[in-house]
Amino acid sequence: MPVLPVPHFEWQVLRAAKRSKRPPTGRQLRLIPSRRTKDGAFLTALVQHDLLTYDSGNAADPFDATYRLTVRGEHAAEYGECEMTASLSVLAKPSKPTAKTTTKTKPKSRRAS
User: Fold this and answer.
1) Which of 97 and 109 is assigned the larger pLDDT?
2) Is the N end or the C end of the chain the one with fewer CB atoms within 10 Å?
3) How far separated are the first and last CA of the chain, in Å rounded?
């Protein structure tokens, strides 16, 4: 598995979870109130990447759920990088070309015979 860096915002969330003595709620892990964090999708993404786990609650209400770091999450919080599995969708090449290819034809001669 390749070792990939953790984005800065996610690293801050993981550090906040590591510093917390009790499992923090999603509301406590929303460090920066922005459009990116208002729906809680960043917490669900961290759970899907196996950096956090639900201590209580579920993905239906990510701000009321409490979270714990996984072993991978603790390593990422400490070093800013972790082993990630490369998904096949990233590695797979598209089967059909996305751009339409056209063939050039020679222009007809304008000379009159």
Assistant:
1) 109
2) C
3) 70
